[in-house]
Design goal:
It comes from Halopolyspora algeriensis. The chain is of the alpha/beta class and 453 residues long. It has 14 helices and 20 strands. Helix 3 (61-72) crosses helix 4 (76-100), helix 4 runs parallel beside helix 5 (134-146) and helix 9 crosses helix 10. It binds NADPH dihydro-nicotinamide-adenine-dinucleotide phosphate. NADPH dihydro-nicotinamide-adenine-dinucleotide phosphate binds next to helix 8.
């Protein structure tokens, strides 16, 4: 069942039945059939449609933001911001797609060759609820411009976002059989992947979902791209403006109520400024992140996406404290209806505690003390994940030296995470396989055909 439950109130808004096996098979046939003609459209035409999609996303930003607020509790302004980057993504691939897809000449021994960049067919997208529009755009925009067609299975808590996105794409001129939304259940995914009409799969979500989808794709010799979790480090080497550093790091962690895969979840602070950083951060988080209605633009702390998610994060915090961590502020469910959890700061987390290695997907900051640069790097890398990392410091060379030692798919200097259309995004280790966005985001489901001239 696809179910919309407003996490601000707990009210059940809508239930939609899962697609039947028959309906899913028909959807597969549509994207397979649609591929034959979509791939033959000139790239410039597909790019023009992507550009029109960007315009429609911009026009419907308020409507989409309101849907996300209702479905998963996103702050209304963050919802509008999310649509801003969706617009950038569609524009990026509309503007750059034709150049990125041009033949690449390759001088070879004894002659000449070119690499031709072709689509591979119908793809399955399995998408999460945390950025209902952005996550879909990252996968869909490059692949539609490339000429692949898409069967999209969105998270079961955001069917309204899924429907609104499909509507925009069709209104922009994407044929009904080049992009098909399905309300398949996750238990139908394995047999969708056995179907020879589906050529690959991209999943953004939890490790468990990633493992299951990648295993099934592998069994069927199909490519998978995985964007999974993270427990990204943010190292503070020094600062000449503690207030600004505290605010920047807190904002990055609390974005989307802490439910971002690439949020800095572990602040690693040098010994000489650690106490001051922790005190100011604790004060700032306790004063600034007060619960409220996400539809109110003044609200700083919205609910999590569901009551289950809030309970789970509260239980992770409780366990960390029972294992010896220090709770500086927050840590409890808020006494009001809805999936609220207090904004939380934890310190003294040690390697024996679960919180040291697991991802905490909510408004919880962990702060660690590092005595040397080497210790900071070792702490940063002591994680099963490797998505993004940030290094803050007044000495650029020093910050860069530290950044270069971090094992992650992305590193940011003096800025905390984030995402932009032209910068590749993705992780290593348990954070995933493959890249999205930028030029690399168009290569994952591409047949780079060698043509020996
Ligand atoms: P899930 O991974 O369960 O959901 C993401 C998507 O995968 C949904 O469409 C879901 O469908 C689908 N899915 C779930 N299990 C399977 C499966 N076995 N086979 C195929 N598809 C599957 O995320 P949750 O919503 O449960 O979130 C839990 C955790 O996932 C978070 O705490 C966080 O760690 C991580 N996460 C990471 C995200 C990221 O941006 N990297 C985004 C969201 C979550 P359905 O909704 O129908 O179950």
């Amino acid at each position: 069942m696809y179910t919309v439950t407003n996490p601000t109130t707990g009210e059940l808004v809508e239930e939609i039945k899962n697609s039947t096996d028959e309906e899913v098979r028909a959807a597969i046939e549509r994207v397979h059939h649609g591929y034959a003609s979509w791939r033959r459209r000139p790239v410039a035409e597909r790019a023009k449609i992507a550009s029109r999609a960007a315009e429609l996303f911009a026009e419907r930003a308020d409507e989409l933001a309101a849907i996300m607020t209702q479905e998963m509790g996103k702050r209304i302004n963050e919802g509008r911001g999310e649509i801003g980057i969706v617009v950038d993504i569609f524009n990026y691939y509309a503007d750059n797609g034709p150049t990125l897809l041009a033949d690449e000449p390759l001088p070879i021994n004894g002659g000449e060759a070119v690499i031709r960049k072709e689509s591979i067919g119908a793809l399955l997208g399995v998408m999460p609820w945390n950025f209902p529009c952005y996550q879909v755009a990252r996968f869909v925009a490059p692949n539609l411009v490339l000429g692949n067609t898409i069967l999209l299975k969105h998270a079961s808590i955001c069917p309204r976002s899924a429907t609104a996105i499909a509507q925009i794409l069709h209104d922009a001129g994407v044929p009904e059989d080049a992009y098909v939304n399905t309300f398949a259940s996750s238990s139908q995914i394995p047999w969708i992947l056995t179907d020879s009409r589906i050529q690959g799969v991209s999943l953004t979500g939890s490790e468990q979902a990633g493992i299951s989808v990648a295993a099934e794709a592998g069994r069927n010799l199909k490519k998978s791209v995985l964007e999974l979790g993270g427990s990204d480090p943010l190292i503070v080497l020094d600062t000449d403006d503690m207030d600004a550093t505290v605010k920047t790091t807190a904002t990055a962690r609390m974005r989307n109520c802490g439910q971002s895969c690439n949020a800095p979840k572990r602040m690693i602070v040098m010994d000489d400024i650690y106490e001051e950083f922790v005190d100011r951060l604790t004060e700032h988080v306790a004063e600034h992140y007060l619960p409220g209605d996400p539809a109110d633009p003044e609200t700083k702390l919205p609910p999590l996406a569901s009551a289950e998610a809030a309970d789970e994060v509260a239980a992770q915090v409780e366990k960390a404290v029972s294992q010896g961590a220090t709770l500086r502020t927050g840590g409890h469910r808020v006494d009001r209806p809805g999936a609220y959890l207090e904004a939380t700061v934890l310190t003294d987390v040690t390697p024996e505690m679960d919180a040291y290695t697991e991802e905490i997907f909510g408004p919880v900051v962990l702060v660690f003390r590092a005595r040397t640069e080497d210790e900071a790097v070792a702490l940063a890398n002591d994680t099963p994940f490797g998505l993004g990392a940030s290094v803050f410091g007044t000495d650029r060379e020093r910050a860069r030296r530290v950044a270069e030692q971090i094992e992650a798919g992305m590193v940011y200097l003096n800025r905390a995470g984030g995402s932009q259309a032209d910068l590749p995004f993705g992780g290593i280790k348990r954070s995933g396989i493959g890249r999205e966005l930028g030029p690399l985001g168009m290569e994952e489901f591409m047949n780079k055909k060698s043509i020996r001239l």
